[in-house]
Write a structure and sequence with these properties.
With 78 residues, the protein is an alpha+beta fold. It has one domain. The chain has helices at 18-27, 61-68; strands spanning 2-5, 9-11, 43-46. It has a three-stranded antiparallel beta sheet, with no helix packed on it. Strand 1 and strand 2 form a beta hairpin. The chain starts with a strand and ends in a 10-residue tail after the last helix. The relative contact order is 0.22.
Length: 78
């Protein structure tokens, strides 16, 4: 399974892939056209198999997410 950084945290439960996630974000009809998102850049990291105890499925998930996408840290796979 992968997680993507598009300044949002997107956990790909259905394994849609980066292109389909970008399309979903950009083509949603927001009420009153209040926002018009355009994805300029995205990154992905492999996070292994999903399970209830996965680090992203906890209150400290943001910390783990930041470590995954830091430029100096190795990219852990669980």
């Amino acid at each position: 399974m992968k997680v993507y950084k598009v300044t949002l945290m997107v956990i790909d439960y259905d394994e849609m892939g980066a292109e389909e996630i970008v399309q979903a974000i950009e083509t949603v009809n927001y009420a009153n056209d209040c926002i018009s998102p355009i994805v300029v850049r995205s990154e992905s990291r492999d996070i292994g198999d999903w399970h209830d105890e996965h680090p992203l499925n906890s209150r400290s998930g943001r910390t783990y997410f930041d470590k995954l996408f830091s430029s100096t840290a190795p990219h852990p796979v669980l």
